[in-house]
Amino acid sequence: YWRSFTYAEDTLAGSKLATRGDAYEVWFTKELIGKTLTAQIRYTYIDYKYTGSNGFFANGGAPVKVDSAFGRAFDAIDTAQDLRFYIRYRY
């Protein structure tokens, strides 16, 4: 069984660790005022190869290739992207 260990994922794109496929992430962090105030921009790209990513114990049946006829019949998600910008204050 496939079990994701990132159930508390808070992005709409889903967890990059629970992806059945490829996931890429780039980020840039800039110190604005030392370590006290920082800014970060982050981009995540997920390329799903199989259905059932982020599922709980293979919820939804056996995984099938996203680009197969069966995967297209269920309108499976092929790719996902997430872009975030943070400003963090450490006290």
Description:
This protein has a 3-stranded antiparallel beta sheet with strand order 1-2-3, with no helix packed on it. The model has no long low-confidence stretch (mean pLDDT 82). By secondary structure, the chain is mainly β. The protein has one domain (21-89). It has 1 helix and 3 strands; from the N terminus they run E-E-H-E.
Please render the helix and strand layout as text.
Blueprint: E1 21-33, E2 37-48, H1 69-73, E3 79-89
Q: Give, in order, the helices and strands.
A: EEHE
Poorly predicted residue ranges: none
Class per helix and strand makeup: mainly beta
Biggest pleated-sheet summary: 3 strands, antiparallel
Strand order across the largest sheet: 1-2-3
The percent of residues in helical segments reads under 10%
Distance, first to last CA = 43 Å
Chain-averaged pLDDT: 82
Strand content: 35-45%
Apparent shape: elongated
Q: Write down how many β-strands occur, each being a DSSP E stretch of 2 or more residues.
A: 3
CA gyration radius, whole angstroms: 17 Å
Number of domains: 1
Number of helices: 1
